[in-house]
Amino acid sequence: MEPTAAQLAELARQLAGTAPNEIDCEAVLDCVAAYFEATQSGITPSADLAMVGQHLEVCPSCLEEFQALVRASAGE
Question: What is the pLDDT of residues 13-53, one digit of tens each?
Fold first, then answer.
């Protein structure tokens, strides 16, 4: 089964968003609460936490976890 044009476009988008110093999902999920606290308090995230933000831009699964944390903190 060959990928669709939309699937290839999404893959290209994700690849373009990667950085040489990527962190994996496990590392992101370990730091997502700290990233959330930093972003909510208006503090510029440290370099390590900035990598969490970069990962969230390209990983739908981790982004979903982050958004669940945001919703939970808002009482939703």
Answer: 877 766 677 788 999 999 999 999 998 898 888 888 889 99
Please enumerate in sequence order all residues whose Cβ is within 8 A of that of 2, keeping only pairs 6 or more positions apart, or say none. Answer: none
In the chain, domain spans: 5-73
- Strand (E) or helix (H) holding 53: helix 47-58
d(CA 15, CA 35): 23
pTM of structure: 0.70
Q: Of 23, 14, 19, 16, which Cα lies nearest the Cα of 48?
A: 23
- Among 39, 43, 40, CA closest to 53: 39
Residue 40's contacts (CB-CB under 8 Å, 6 or more residues apart) are 73
